Amino acid sequence: xxxxxxxxxxxxxxxxxxxxxxxxxxxxxxxxxxxxxxxxxxxxxxxxxxxxxxxxxxxxxxxxxxxxxxxxxxxxxxxxxxxxxxxxxxxxxxxxxxxxxxxxxxxxxxxxxxxxxxxxxxxxxxxxxxxxxxxxxxxxxxxxxxxxxxxxxxxxxxxxxxxxxxxxxxxxxxxxxxxxxxxxxxxxxxxxxxxxxxxxxxxxxxxxxxxxxxxxxxxxxxxxxxxxxxxxxxxxxxxxxxxxxxxxxxxxxxxxxxxxxxxxxxxxxxxxxxxxxxxxxxxxxxxxxxxxxxxxxxxxxxxxxxxxxxxxxxxxxxxxxxxxxxxxxxxxxxxxxxxxxxxxxxxxxxxxxxxxxxxxxxxxxxxxxxxxxxxxxxxxxxxxxxxxxxxxxxxxxxxxxxxxxxxxxxxxxxxxxxxxxxxxxxxxxxxxxxxxxxxxxxxxxxxxxxxxxxxxxxxxx
Length: 461
Hints:
The chain has two domains: about 350 residues, no CATH class; about 55 residues, CATH 2.40.50.140. The longest helix has about 35 residues. Strands 2-9-8-5-4 form a five-stranded mixed beta sheet. The protein has a five-stranded antiparallel beta sheet with strand order 17-16-15-18-19. It is of the alpha+beta class. The two termini are about 30 Å apart. Helix content is about 35%, strand content about 25%. The radius of gyration is 23 Å and the shape is globular. The chain contains twelve helices and 19 strands. Strand 4 and strand 5 form a beta hairpin.
């Protein structure tokens, strides 16, 4: 839930309550702000000059914390992806106030009315951000992408770069992007299919008020440029993960696929949305048939995202192959250091490994701690997101108490009967008895209270 159009601030109290409940920080301590301003004044002194390379950034148009810039060039039948990542490790020194605060926060927390950054704006939206207003220090990754989408890390260096343009997902034109941009994305998508990856790109949920003053939910499918841009980050992360694993080091993102119970719940959810999921088709096969432009399919893609067992971070362990089921690959995070603490350390490890140097002991020690630190940060972020969704659902349904809704039972557990509304991407619980997963039912909305983020239904048929 990234967008909430509420010009009269009717949900401001609800969002403020979420911030208070989950202790989302509103500001940085003075010492941290001071350290950020001091770090921002540093002049790069160990970076190779790559300012002549034609880098651009591609992000939401309003973004100013830009982690990545890219350039692409052909190399025979291969493509070379030059991916510049903000050199946050160069700005942040171990043990300084910036470092200590980042270990407390773990990641940037997003709400529809703003964010609580991992680092102060003097860094995250200025000196370290790859904005097109001057030279920036970066860690430059070069990844070779074969015609079949196979990736291999070619080199990593500290570099001074200059972005030529800040491009937006919704407004970018094809002629503003490298000529091989679409082809590179196609190759990565083909490799995904070959591996059996089950990645989905769910739509953004946007809440807005209609002319009658009611809140409505709109699902915005990702723009084509946004989906293609994700391939650049994926290609680099996969190549770095392979290099780190081969070197016997690293911090990896792992995730198990949905279990049998979750798959069964998804099949019932598909039925609720009127989607035809052939019994013989796997989830990975079925989701490739979904068109995110169709509201029912878009809502189901959100359900897939919620059905996973959750991803986590694990350090390298001899003899254990880290695996991310959705990616169907060994995978790591390192392309968003302005927003994730762990990425800063993976960047440092990749820089060492690619240049034949031992990974610093401090980085290896951090890998052993980051799993729990990032797990706590991810958990808090997920709680905030769930609370925002609860608030939005209650706001959307407020004023409709007494109305009847078609629903399908998706699961039974000690907390009650889980139902999926057929006409809205709303999951709720009710105390209905004598039903089985898959049963169609009709429910009445009894309660829709945004102040308590509470929705209540009862079965009538």
